[in-house]
Amino acid sequence: MRFDLFDLQLFVAIAEAGNLTQASNKLHIVPSASSARIKQLEDSFGVRLFHRASTGLSLTPAGQAMLFHARRILLRANRMRDELSEFSRGLQGVVRIFSISIGATVYLPKALSSFLTKHAQVSVEIEEHISDDIIRAVREYRADIGIIGGKFAVDELQIFPYANERLVVLASVDHPICARPDISFEEALDLDFIGLNPHNTLNLFLIRQANQVGKTFRTRALVRGPYEASAMVVGNAGITIVEESVARQCALTMPLRAIPLSDPWALREMQICVRNLGELPPFARDLVAMLRADGTSLTPASAGAAAPSPISNAPSGID
């Protein structure tokens, strides 16, 4: 059984295009050579990978299994190439972290600062994604460590508790809803809203929740992030929804009040996920250990926020 990475690239390209000529053009190979390579693959495994018809090519059950494994092999090969290239810069490794926005902006920076000081020849790359995409990336080896929010079906992954965050409605102190102990998300959707940029993972999460109750936001403005949104909330242009830790930080300098969302999903349990802790490089395992140790004591205040006098009606617990 002999094949190379280009054979796998070609197979994946044909599977995705459903057309041998298009895939061949994409990879700059003549169709006849592509056909011969796929035939050799099929002979090597003793199975047919494609159904061939006048309308194009489609995967057989064996081909579908092959596609799953081929994608994983190519992803890991690309990862190997990227990591080895780092050695030319004097680095000993890279840790790739996919995180929801609150993890990347509030919780991770302090831990990563300590980690990078300890591991001077290791670099860290962070990307913000929604939890579903983070789980997929960890499964597919595109991320070493994931920070997700909420409970998910995470087969094949190892999960460790990290921190909790509560979602709150942030309003000006003279807004009518400030007299309430809490508010449901569905009720909040009836109010004018200052939204976050479309790529913010909290924004994407809230859009999904709104779709589930069959409503949309009454958006007055879209701004870059929660701090910009808070500045507009002060002037009663609308309300916004942020994590409690962010609300506490904003309330230090602005007359704001946080009203907890009463929905069960508003209590977001942040978790660390890895594919297999034992497969990670030693420095990546050390980072997971540092995050787990930090997670046992993290609160919105300890993540970087301060005392909550302007939002004292918010519960003491966090998500």
TrEMBL record:
Transmembrane segments: none annotated. SUPFAM superfamilies: Periplasmic binding protein-like II, Winged helix' DNA-binding domain. It comes from the Bacteria. Gene3D superfamilies: 3.40.190.290, Winged helix-like DNA-binding domain superfamily/Winged helix DNA-binding domain. One of its GO terms (molecular function) is DNA binding. Residues 1-60 form the HTH lysR-type domain. GO terms for cellular component: cytosol. Pfam families: HTH_1 (PF00126), LysR_substrate (PF03466). Keywords: DNA-binding, Transcription, Transcription regulation. Residues 300-319 are annotated as: Disordered. Belongs to the LysR transcriptional regulatory family. This is LysR family transcriptional regulator. It comes from Phreatobacter stygius.
